[in-house]
Amino acid sequence: MVSTGNTRDEQLAELLEQMLEAQRQGESVDVQSYAAGNEALVDELRQIWAACQLADAIGSGALGELDADATSSGVRDTSTSPLADFELPHQFGDYELLEELGRGGMGVVFRARQQSLDRIVALKMILRGNLASQEDRLRFRSEAEAAARLKSPHIVPIYEVDDYQGQAYFTMAHIEGETLAQRLQKGPLPPQEAARILRDVARAVGVAHAEGVLHRDLKPSNILLDGQGRPHVSDFGLAKRVATGGETVDQSLTRTGAILGTPSYMAPEQAAGNRGELGPATDIYSLGALLYQMLTGRPPFQAATALDTIMLVLEQDPVPPRVLNPRADHELELIALRCLQKPPDLRYENADRLAEDLEAYLAGEPISARSGRISAVMARMFRDTHHVDVLENWGLLWMWHALALLVLCLVTNLMHSTNLFQAGGVQEPIAYVGLWGGGLAVWAPIFWLLRHRAGPVTFVERQIAHVWAGSVVASVGLFAVEWILALPVLTLSPVLGLINGVVFTVKAGILTGEFYVQAAALFLTAAVMAILQVNGIDVGVSLFGIVSAAAFFFPGLKYYRRTHESTG
Amino acid sequence: MWPKNEETQELLVGAEEGDPDAVNRLFERHRAAVRRMIDLRMDRQLTRRVDASDIVQDVLIEANRRLADYLKNPVMPFHLWLRQMAQDRLIDAHRRHRQAAKRSLDREQPLVARGGLDQSTMNLVAELRDGERTPASQAAWNELQLQFVAAIDRLEDQDREVVLMRHFEKLSNSEVAETLNLTPPAASMRYLRAVRRLKAILSGEERSKE
User: Fold this and answer.
1) Cβ–Cβ below 8 Å for B127 and A65
2) Are A268 and A310 in contact (CB under 8 A)?
3) Class for domain A178-382, per CATH?
4) Does ipTM surpass 0.95 in this model?
5) Which end of chain A has the smaller Cβ count within 10 Å, N or C?
6) What is the pLDDT of residue A543?
């Protein structure tokens, strides 16, 4: 992933080609990982990539149209669908259509009487344009049948999936009431009610996920509230189809489909069209968006245009609900924000965990989103940052550095314990200063030169080099402090552990949280060195050498191996 | 958008062996893509004068005439070769009608104000309609397309061309390079420049340049 281009634009162009190629191969593309180590590029790359995604989706939309024209000889008119011309009541097979309840992009919903069973149902007819080919019909049927198998008190049950005189339709229970969208027009919901509704919806989604059915288009207008205010989720798995394979046309339509949906409720991975990544976490995100809107009265991201909304979903963090509605409940806010995390793995693991948290909230018990937030912070602390790939340039160098440090410390310790440079019973610091200062002064430029040869030095590496240089100055400075305070040489050597602990703490922040381990080990070493010194055991500097060498050697080895795996 | 190569290769072998059916099928399977490529690029003045299917027909007739030469010396993949001819035809048509009709056509122009939704934009939008509608998303999708098309209209010709090739015709970078007579790195630089401008327009950083 290290770009070989020289100028910034060459690097960008090459990264872009790599990403497009990966996407054409059906891989999901993470901008961060491609731009790793190129801090200066990542922002522009992300924005340009968003534009590419759009161009591709729109270009594929045009493609879908072309192929549909080619296969159905251009006859494809949804605007003059016969559906528009019913006079109600209208006989439709076993059903008597009584009243139109609504229409959307997918079809028209009627209230209907099923005569054989004498019951009122909701009947949804699918616009012909949505099911152009035989294959589309079969797929629709199998998906509707999968959805029909879902059993939950909070899922609108599907009774029948069929077609009548070539018109595909399905019937479901008719819920008297209003949609959540209608309810939200009156403003935010009281916290208890919001929590109760979302808990039930999350349970329903959990049931569906257990059956392998994703909803993919959870939004207020798909949640029906009955007379008692209980939610019922409709249109399970029917809203969008994610193909599992097949033709390129299919894939392009799917890609288009992936960016479709209602941008305000879409998860970032969905908005970016990364169809490979759609999973239960995508629905969890949408559940969070629902909760957010119940708390604030508006969805988490809403801009003047759909395009701007998608940009926000991809790039921005949502405004905390309490900024929009000061009376929004803090705990529910935490729950919503946890669902709305951009990396899918930082959201709730599954819908049931979300439902349990809402249950806990309703029962007045502590919620996990709070501690969860700490654990999310911890997870974030210990995960690799997007700069970590920098280390791939450094693996071999770190192993050499470990050796250099070890030798330096062992020699120092040896000099000290054998009293080599003694004058009048007191050890001369000059020799040590020469060894340390000289050794590091020689080694550092070699190190830097070697690093330079591996390619351009990034901003992050410069930061790390600065911390490092500072630590070298501090280490050698200890001799000066000892001399001024008239302390025997190496008295302050335990401080080396502290200095290097700080260096690793900074690296942990910049590169990967794994370095907190090294930092802790070095801090601990400082204490042990002090204890050894008090007890007159002169091995402290060697101990420091071993610990700090290990601190460099093992990550060095790890990243050295990683580089060799990724290139070979 | 362009048909897959493997079958094209088989048909080319058939054509070389003198199978008239193979020749027909070869052109038939490329007809839609050529049409599409032309539709994406006809400007609104020309649309009122010339039927795109006439140009497609001309391209296919010319291709048929020159097929023997091509088979002897296939300098580039077949679909790029066809594309090139279509491009030449398109340029010819634009040039001819611009000059021949400088008086008449340009005077007709006030029908639509420049910068607004002109005919070529609307044609493109009509083509952009997607087959898979989802509840409530259609309006957003339409709006997105309109915005996008407006943005693409404001790109310079060179930039627009490379975006159309990459994202609408789904040509690879090396195919674009071959078509534009550039090295692949130069083609990807041009592509970068185009999407960078597109992004600037889409995100409102670059207001009207007119």
Assistant:
1) yes
2) no
3) mainly alpha
4) no
5) C
6) 94
Say if the Cβ atoms of B135 and A9 lie within 8 Å.
Answer: no
pLDDT for A498 equals 95
pTM of the predicted structure, to 2 decimals: 0.48
Chain CA centroid to CA A288, Å: 14
Q: How many CB pairs under 8 A join A and B?
A: 151
**Cβ neighbours of residue B131 closer than 8 Å, sequence gap 6 or more:** A64, A65, A68, A129, A130, A132, A253
Question: What is the pLDDT of chain A when averaged over all its residues?
Answer: 78
| Helices A368-382 & A330-339 angle (0-180, nearest 10) | 40
Taking the CA of residue A130 and the nearest CA in chain B, the distance in Å comes to 6
Average pLDDT of the segment spanning A260-267: 67
Do A351 and A283 meet the contact criterion of CB atoms below 8 Å apart? yes
**Cβ(A64)–Cβ(B130) below 8 Å:** yes
* E strands present in A298-439: 422-423, 426-427
Contact check, Cβ <8 Å, A59/B168: yes
Q: How far apart are CA B40 and CA B152, in angstroms?
A: 11
Out of A14, A20, A105, name the one closest to residue B136 (CB): A105
Show residues of chain B in contact with A59, CB under 8 Å. Answer: 164, 167-170
Residue from A351, A252, A336 nearest A299 by CA: A336
pLDDT in tens, A361-377: 998 888 877 655 566 66
How many CA atoms, within 13 angstroms, populate the side-chain half-sphere of residue A16? Answer: 31
Taking CB atoms and an 8 Å cutoff, what residues of chain B touch A69? 32
Mark whether A162 is an active-site residue. Answer: no
Q: Cβ of B134 and A51 within 8 Å?
A: no
Nearest-by-Cβ selection for B131 from A51, A253, A305: A253
Q: Does the beta-carbon distance from B199 to A104 stay under 8 Å?
A: no
* SS3 track for B139-164: HHHHHHHHHHHHHHHCCCHHHHHHHH
Q: Hey, is the C-beta of A58 within 8 angstroms of any chain B C-beta?
A: yes
Which tens digit of pLDDT belongs to each residue from B77-121? 899 999 989 988 888 887 777 665 544 444 333 322 333 333 443
Question: What is A82-173's CATH number, 3.30.1130.10, 3.40.50.720, 2.40.100.10, 3.30.200.20?
Answer: 3.30.200.20
* Domain B1-111 belongs in CATH node 1.10.1740.10: yes
Q: What confidence tens digit (pLDDT) does each residue in B11-61 have? A: 888 888 888 888 888 888 888 888 888 888 876 566 667 778 888 888 888
From A56, A200, A217, A329, active-site residue = A217
Q: Are A440 and A496 in contact (CB under 8 A)?
A: no
